[in-house]
DNA sequence: CCCTGATTCGC
DNA sequence: GCGAATCAGG
């Protein structure tokens, strides 16, 4: 394979989109991520985030050459950094002092009272054992964030996306499947035991 | 271990 | 110019 115009175009587009070199290599086919990275550098777009760099040479810096040790130049960044003093936890949210007796511990459900949450294994009639297995597995979840997921990590969501208490299972997924064993068993049910959906 | 990009250097 | 091997890091 060679770098035809359209292939280079695809490369540029995907790289600009923030795609990884390996993803681009997969898309193009016939090349490895190394090839992609090499090309990216040759094209001079290694910096996904082209910084304006208004003052490129403001530092004469009569640095004496140390060891001829390989490793270019650290390219020190002389950033002034005003640095703001700690503003005393702006994020902190004090408990409403005007709170009588009842505890607001739990957030009010976003969904009123209906039950439009099919993917939740909680209220369904799935293999009781599978459910137990899931609960057990979820204790060992790797608690990955969306961006940490890969093709071989379980993408089963755990918790409420509206709260901080949300993450993805992240355990090794079955090759080809999006979930780990436990979650596959609750995600993919044989058509049999899923009769009527009351309603 | 999985993955990421960066760099080198023989081709 | 190309990209495998390697490096450096998460």
TrEMBL record:
Renumbered residue ranges of the record's region Disordered: 42-130
Pfam families: GcrA
Extent of Basic and acidic residues compositional bias: 63-72
Cross-referenced InterPro entries: GcrA (IPR011681)
Skewed-composition ranges (Pro residues): 75-88
Descriptive protein name: GcrA cell cycle regulator
Organism from which the protein derives: Paracoccus sediminis
